[in-house]
Specification:
The protein is of the alpha/beta class. Helices cover 46% and strands 11% of the residues. The protein has 13 helices and 9 strands. Helix 2 crosses helix 3 (68-75). The two termini are 20 Å apart.
């Protein structure tokens, strides 16, 4: 049970980040299946951050057909910048975990970049859809960096300052909205208040709390009888959370639901995880119910049964 809880915690953290990214796709007026087309500049290459990137890359690859070619193609959607700058294959003593995201020298030169290019240089050249902060460096998204995000090719650039506690957040929502503009999408790892943008407009501060997924992934895994939490089960949970908001909410920049909905979210996520476990033939059954019986349950009935 302790190993399951640990796996659920790790999966919940990565899953919430992916759900936020999928929510940003929706907020940008695109279907979630367009996620593999998103350009993502990542600040931070620690183990936790690389874990999120690996999960995001696998999600992209599954959307592209879940082939080796798709997995390799998904790598090109990420530009990873650490304390020494942009990571390329020229980097000496590169961390093995970051190696898969190191750009080839010829490719990066064609983009007008180089090994060790600064965060602001990378943002200016790439014009990303998302600036994802996983650095634990407070204030890393400086005025210069946020100004560069105004040139994003997306009409609704997303700024994810995911490091916590609050003092480690890469920027505040006030800084993001005041510099990038009211069309920005903001998410954080720490709690912040929404920002009054004037004229009746609100800048929503979406906190990516793993509470959204931790209970549902755990419940769904337990009830399915699966011995593992597969990439598909994690993706199913993330997509379920990203789809939870209405179109009206998403248009307003809301990419995570109210925490008051946690019980209903947990039910929905658990059911999605169970269905995916069955689809992947990982479910071994729950109590007297074998996997075949689980598979015959409707979504509504499974919600009532499990929750």
């Amino acid at each position: 049970m302790s190993s399951l809880l640990r796996l659920c915690g790790e999966s919940g953290t990565a899953g919430v980040a992916i759900a936020g990214l999928l929510g940003a796709v929706r907020a940008q007026g695109r279907p979630m299946i367009d996620f593999p087309k998103m350009k993502i500049v990542v600040a931070g290459a620690g183990s936790a951050g690389i874990g999120v990137l690996n999960a995001a890359r696998k999600t992209m690859a599954r959307m592209l057909g879940d082939t080796e070619t798709a997995f390799d193609s998904a790598r090109s959607q990420f530009w990873v910048v650490d304390a020494k700058g942009l990571i390329t294959e020229e980097r000496q003593n590169i961390d093995p975990e970051a190696q898969p995201f190191a750009w080839k020298v010829k490719e990066v030169k064609r983009q007008g970049l180089r090994e060790g290019a600064s965060l602001v240089e990378v943002v200016r050249q790439v014009k990303p859809d998302v600036l994802l902060g996983l650095s634990a460096v407070g204030g890393l998204f400086s005025k210069e960096v946020l100004e560069a995000m105004k040139s994003s090719t997306s009409t609704r650039p997303a700024i994810f300052a995911m490091s916590n506690p609050t003092k480690n957040a890469e920027c505040t929502p006030e800084e993001a909205f005041s510099i990038v503009g009211e069309n920005a999408i903001f998410a954080s790892g720490s709690p912040f208040q929404d920002v009054d943008l004037g004229n009746g407009h609100i800048g929503h501060c979406n906190q990516g709390n793993n509470m959204y997924l931790f209970p549902g992934i755990g419940l769904g895994t337990l009830l399915s009888g699966s011995r593992i939490i597969s990439d598909g089960m994690l993706q199913a949970a993330a997509e379920c959370l990203a789809a939870y908001m209405t179109e009206e909410e998403v248009v307003k920049g809301v990419i995570f639901p109210s925490i008051s909905s946690i019980r209903d979210i947990t039910k929905q996520v658990a059911a999605a995880v169970v269905r995916e476990a069955i689809e992947e033939d990982l479910a071994e059954g729950y109590r007297e119910m074998d996997a075949r019986e689980l598979g015959r349950l409707s979504q509504a009935y499974s919600l009532n049964l499990f929750c």
